Automatic annotation (TrEMBL), chain A:
Residues 15-117 form the Rieske domain. Keywords: 2Fe-2S, Iron, Iron-sulfur, Metal-binding, Nitrate assimilation, Oxidoreductase. This is Nitrite reductase small subunit NirD. It comes from Nocardiopsis endophytica. InterPro entries: NirD, Rieske-like_NirD, Rieske_2Fe-2S, Rieske_2Fe-2S_sf. PANTHER family: NITRITE REDUCTASE (NADH) SMALL SUBUNIT (PTHR40562:SF1), PTHR40562.
UniProtKB/TrEMBL annotation, chain B:
This is assimilatory sulfite reductase (ferredoxin). Residues 617-755 form the Nitrite/sulphite reductase 4Fe-4S domain. Its cofactor is FAD; siroheme; [4Fe-4S] cluster; [2Fe-2S] cluster. Pathway: Nitrogen metabolism; nitrate reduction (assimilation). CDD domains: NirB_Fer2_BFD-like_2. Residues 826-837 have a biased composition (Low complexity). Coiled coil: none annotated. The keyword tRNA processing does not apply. It comes from Nocardiopsis endophytica. The gene is nirB.
Amino acid sequence: MSVLTTETPAAARDWTAVCPGALLAAERGAAVLLPGGEQAAVFRSAAGELFAVSNIDPFTGAAVMARGIMGDRAGEPTVASPLLKHVFSLRTGLPLDGEGPGLATYPVRERDGRVEVGAADGPAGGAL
Amino acid sequence: MARLIVIGNGMAGHRLVDTLTRADTDRAWQVTVIGEEPRPAYDRVALSSYFDGASEDDLLLGDLSGRADQRLAERVTAIDRERRTVTTDTGTTLAYDALVLATGSTPFIPPVPGADLPGCHPYRTIEDLEAITASAEGATTGAVIGGGLLGLEAANALRLLGLDTHVVELAPHLMPAQVDQGAGALLARMVADLGVTAHTGTATSAVTAGPHGRASGLDLGETTLPADVVVFSAGIRPRDDLARRAGLDLGPRGGAAVDDACRTSDPHIYAVGECASHNGTVYGLVAPANAMADTAADRLLGGTAAFTGADTSTKLKLMGVDVASFGDAHGRGEQGALDVVVNDAASRRYAKLVVSDDATRLLGGVLVGDASAYGTLRALVGRELPGDPLELISPASSGAGAGPAALPDDAQICSCNAVTKGDIAAAIHDGACDVPDLKKATCAGTSCGSCVPMLKTLLADAGVEQSKALCEHFAHSRADLMEIVRATGITTFSDLIARHGTGRGCDVCKPAVASILASLGNGHILAGEQAGLQDTNDHFLANMQRNGTYSVVPRIPGGEITPERLIVIGEVAREFGLYTKITGAQRIDLLGARVEQLPAVWARLVDAGFESGHAYGKALRTVKSCVGSTWCRYGVQDSVTMAIDLELRYRGLRSPHKLKGAVSGCARECAEARGKDFGVIATDKGWNLYVGGNGGFTPRHAELLASDLDSATLVRYLDRFLMYYIRTADRLQRTAAWIESLDGGLERLREVVVDDALGIAADLEADMAAHIDGYADEWRGVLEDPDKLARFVSFANAPDTPDPTISFDTVRDQPVPSAPVPLGMPEPATAATAVEA
């Protein structure tokens, strides 16, 4: 059993345009609403790399990850939940402070000046 | 259950009951405490702090309710040892299986004529203090008879009551029980600096009466002294009348004679504290009383603890003067003992070591003016000296010769909690790497704190690197980064981390740097790159709650609010459906606003003249006040105006941690100012400034920094104190911990803030002036800037769609977050904004 299983088939990858690229400033997250009511937190690193993870903090159930601080740990891009400060890898969604649930990750890309998010890759590394 | 009766509810009685009931996990004893005073047990040692702003409640010792039946304002009149009962003045008779006498002592009032005149008082109970305060009203002069430890405390009390104060001591110098002639002479000079005149080698032959029949002076034989208030502090006499009448054996100088088990000549009766005589000695200090109480408690529970006499070493601060005495301070216990003395009258410092005749062992000593070596020296008593005794007390070598490195493993480092150097070393070996770790592992340094510098030295000696690195991105402490930013003029995080750090930062260093940049006045905290550095609370200028909504706290300076504004807050709460609660800091918290609602909520509030309350920031929160002299019949200053002035002066000030203040209009302290980072308490001459208080996990009372200040000086000292804190404290270090971390603690802070020892006062004041000039309301700044407003959306692709995971239940007619979705459950897919329960 995993936290964030959805019924979206991962194979048929539909992309949802979520915002103009200019709206997503470096190292500041944005929450986006996906079809079916899921929420993702989208980030852009200073180097321009894009990341999308579930917006739901798995430790509290609150939809707040986009409002967390982006950073890095030994080069790994991270986001810290603003609630209880758990830190997650933005690449894998895995928690970096020991055991616990992780964040689902989403494919994300920039096309024609728009940020697009795909269907979930699934829960982080089967951490549960 | 066996019945234990404790007669006397002073410090010894309280300690016994506390120790016994904590250890008595099988509930073997049903405990009754009978005390004649009308209140629960209080800290008699701290009595004089009553005149320094402490309230009765501050002095109370730990609550015993639930653990013992406390019969207050009741006095035991007789003990019937045959039937094992006690009778009290209410006519009640109670049976016991074991009885503890903890009746303490009475002050000795010398039999001089006039000692019973109105205006003459003992110095022992809170009632005595109240009577002294009443006598001091309208009086101008005061005298204390007795220049011992307690006498000097009493003299300080009279001084704080504004009296011209004299101390009369029969012995040739002050504190004859603890210190020698040389130390006593220095002490006399040092109290004279504070305006207290000592008359030593002087007997009082009478208290003389004035025209109204009240005390008006002392007849000292050859001279006279004016004294409207006379306090007797000429020693104590054990209260042994009950023991005497019950036929128990007494000591040669009074007191119920006890053995090493603290048991009297009746095996069912114990005696502890000042009413007991052990090997002919009646101890008048709290440490031996505690040791006796612990012994008796252990014996009552079947243990084998023994009291074999007590170390009467003491270290205290009298009127700001450090005085310590340890071991055999007078060299009376050993033939041929030698004195090694440093007496530096110019720098007000006296130190004496008593050593064995061959100068190899330390027997005792006395320190006045600078007692920093007390911890090490006390631990060395009875041991071989690590080197030349003079080295140990000469100022040049302090820290070197007298360092804890010289101590053997079984030497006590923390005498309050009996922690040895070996215990500390073991804790360090087990991974303790800073002082808080050591405190947790060993309890060392958790009582009086005087061993904390030694703990730091032991850590350093053990080679434990005290890493100051903020996080993996900066090898600097917050204070270092502050200096770098000040020196280089760097204004962005990117620039700082590129030049002085590594990587891209994290949730530790980003907000810390954001705070530094804000403290140094770098514009709006959401301007440009700074926005991405802020914790979410600062980022959205509101406090995030458990369900991702925010609370809104408008500033209400000093807690004063007009009905019109109060109505606006009510209307806003009603319109946006916000949960409303009065906070502990005299303002109003509106909870449950979604991120996209915040601008609309604040537009209404800003319109009505409200500003951000910075409840979300590591910044000045509030300056609480009582109604002060404007309304209160006791108030002596206008505390509300002062609180509002201070809150408006420091609003928006970003700091290493949150900052709280309060102003009380009189010594009754209704604003609880001593629980704040800075507390101001009115006196009839001006204001007393306290610093370093806080509530929370580890509550702390603020300590007096300066007294009787006029308003301008108060503000100047506060400017310096706050800016010095902001410049030098660690990340998330509150003022109490920061002061503790300063080398020299509160004394050092006073040197910097009051005496300008570093010559930076003008600079600190200029920084504060710049802050005040640069202040602008953050919320108004957001509402006026479309770029900043654009951040306040629920979703980038659906800005006005409320977060579907947020829902509320109704409790007592108000919305509260619905119970969180349990982990492992799919999130709700409905898009309802609110689900009514």
